[in-house]
Design brief:
The chain has 3 helices and 7 strands; from the N terminus they run αβββββββαα. By secondary structure, it is of the alpha+beta class. It has a single domain, classed as Peptide Deformylase (Alpha-Beta Complex). The strands form 2 sheets. The protein has a 5-stranded antiparallel β-sheet. A two-stranded antiparallel sheet has the order 4-5. The longest helix has 16 residues.
Length: 180
């Protein structure tokens, strides 16, 4: 396992669309292991492959602090097949440093995916797990949580990041809060 560098907004690689995994092989297994190690070291609740510059549709999540019965979740090619209701959740992100915002998401989701052990699974989720799944799948689709907030709030954050860069404090050097 190895720690990988987490890309930070405004890195254009974060906007790229991840491609479906065709084969679960040793290279993908290594990527998933690296995602787990990087997520825990950050620390975060979830991490998508696109956040470390890999265009594979793979995510890892661990929300057991809020939902103790759950453990580490590793998903390949996750797809939301059903979404219902609405919930507003305060979100943060390892790729969007020094910023949180309330985001409206589906309150309940059904996600289909594969595990690294090549088992097809379904996850019926609500609450934090539903939010985290949607957040990470958004990353695979080239979206950040700030793409789901008002234009005004997004523009204010962009200006702050530009100022950090202009002042010689790039976002990469700032520490993200524990994030989804």
């Amino acid at each position: 396992m190895a720690l990988r560098r987490i890309l930070k907004f405004p890195d254009p690689e974060l906007k790229q669309l991840a491609q479906p995994v065709q084969n679960i092989d040793g290279q993908l297994q290594q990527l998933v292991s690296d995602l787990v190690e990087t997520m825990y070291a950050a620390p975060g609740l979830g991490l998508a492959a696109t956040q470390v510059g890999s265009l594979e549709r793979a995510v890892v999540l661990d929300v057991r602090e809020a939902e103790p019965k759950l453990g580490l979740i590793k998903l390949i090619n996750p797809v939301i097949v059903q979404a219902e209701g609405s919930i507003v959740w305060e979100e943060a992100c390892l790729s969007v440093v020094d910023y949180t915002a309330e985001v409206r998401r589906a309150a309940h989701v059904l996600v289909k995916a594969w595990t690294p052990e090549e088992k097809e699974i379904e996850i019926d989720a609500e609450g934090l797990l539903a939010v985290a799944l949607q957040h990470e799948i958004d990353h695979l689709d080239g979206k950040l949580f700030i793409d789901r907030i008002s234009r005004l709030k997004r523009d204010l954050y962009r200006r702050r990041v530009r100022k950090w860069i202009r002042d010689g404090v790039p976002p990469e050097s700032r520490k993200a809060a524990a994030s989804i």
